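I'd like us to work through together how a protein chain folds, taking it slowly. We need material for that, and I hope you will provide a protein of your own picking. Go ahead whenever you are ready, and we will take it from there:
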Amino acid sequence: MDRSNAFVLVGCVGAGKSSLFQALFDKDEPARKTQAVVFEGDRGVDTPGEFFSHPRMYTALIQTTADVGTLVYVHDGTEANFRMPPGLLSVYRGKRVVAVITKTDLPDCDADRAERLLRRNGFDGQIFRVSQADPDSIRRLRSELLPSTTNVRETQS
């Protein structure tokens, strides 16, 4: 299966990857703790936070990201620390890397601080701010990650 147009969500446990994944694919079921890699056809991949958070799992993360075109680092906007291991997302050259700041609707979220943290740690690509309470923020990210499905969805509405 060709997944070069697909994206993969990576980030710490609790960053909001699974909730974001559900929202991007218009799933109404509640997000549950991701125990294994979840695929949405040939378009998207959700990874367990443990792949990202535990060095012994890095090989699983690297293998999972091998054939996708876009790596999406998901950062909890309420988190003041940057937990990405240095160089982890640059293992494969030529991939597009974007960041998403989640939970921007929560009172203890500081999205500006989170964006500064990402920039200080080498993110020079696009950074999206999203909230489950702001459907437009999800739509903007969806149109970036899933352009062909967004166009189909808009013409059907």
